[in-house]
Amino acid sequence: MSNNSISTYKFKPFEFTVLKENLGPLQRSVVRPMRRVVGNDAIFLFNEFKDQTNDAPGQRVPSPMHQIWKFSLDLGEWKVINCRNVPQELVTNYNIVTLSGNIILMYGSIGVPSGGICRNRMYLGNLANEYKENGMIFVDLKECGDFLLPLYILGVVMDGKYIYAIGNTSGNKNEMEVHRFDLSTKKFELLYKSVREGIVVETRYQHEVVFYKRKIYIFAGQGDGDHPAAAWNFFYDFSKIHMFDVDTKQWQLLSAKPDHRVPEPGYPINRCFLACVQCPEKANLVYICGGLDYYLPLKDFWRIDFDTLQWEKLTQWIMHRPVYLHLTAITPTGRMYCFGGIVSENDIDYEARATNTLSSGWIKIPKLKDICWEAMIYYFKEQMFKSTDECLKKIGIPQEYYERIIEARRIR
């Protein structure tokens, strides 16, 4: 297999390049991220939109549609996985979508804080069923014992069989309670009640949540009217981080260390709508990028080490444009993907627009085999995906990559 008509492959770490600018017109709607990347070969996003149907006599009315988008990292193409048994009450961007392995959990509400009714139902789907005749069907976990009150959850993180919910709101008032849902017993447990004495955790929303070594860290976020010195547009800074110990069920307020190599204060600019992602191989490392300050989208990269609480500005990294409300994920090999968001064409332009661009960049130097595979995809992608199974085996493609090609073929 050879191809002399394309330019030479170059390995480019720490630089984001655009992979996909387009998606179908029906897919330009509400998109929420799954919280994890599955393996090194695919990214999953949850999409919801309203298709126009003729359900009502004489007129076309919106009908809820639900999809999982699966992007093959090797093939570079999207596949739509249609979902069944997702109730209309979850047709809103006010609910939680979480992915762990092949299991998708949805916990939702509707119309909050826009005057609707909160819901507290939980639904489970299994991506292993995507190729079955009936497709992917969500199961209503009706017998879940003691559910939370019907409130919208502000932050969720998973660890093994547990789902931790940090903060909730009725749409009018925020609380910083901590609940834990046990997937084996299907019951919620209250770990911390907001009115308890001790460390005061100010109510907030749009905060980031990270689980590391039996502890939950929350940082950033937007303050609400309950904060004594804050208006609704108050952004919490990055110099202090609240940590909740799930064993002692207590909060601590930790002081983070600034990056002294950059101008003061050495912390990320106060912001909301940023992207936050945890490194799969080194869970102590958490990356943030983009976001919105009080006026403008941002494009900077920062990293914090939860073993040392040291912030570091990654000045060598380049995002192609400022962005907020975007989605990010990291593969186990160390490649970060950024999808969608609201973008600005430059650093001083107040005008912004929505985008469905998918971009990608290495956040570390990967293993040589991963660089070699990226080069193989660059030069020979079409030939490999069109070759027979026997041909792929004869040319000596390693088994793990052979299986990735076989899986990616099913998208087409």
TrEMBL record:
SUPFAM superfamilies registered for this protein in UniProt: Kelch motif (SSF117281)
Listed Pfam families: Kelch_KLHDC2_KLHL20_DRC7
Biological processes, Gene Ontology terms: positive regulation of stress-activated MAPK cascade
Keywords: Kelch repeat, Repeat
Gene3D superfamilies: Kelch-type beta propeller
UniProt protein name: Kelch domain-containing protein 10
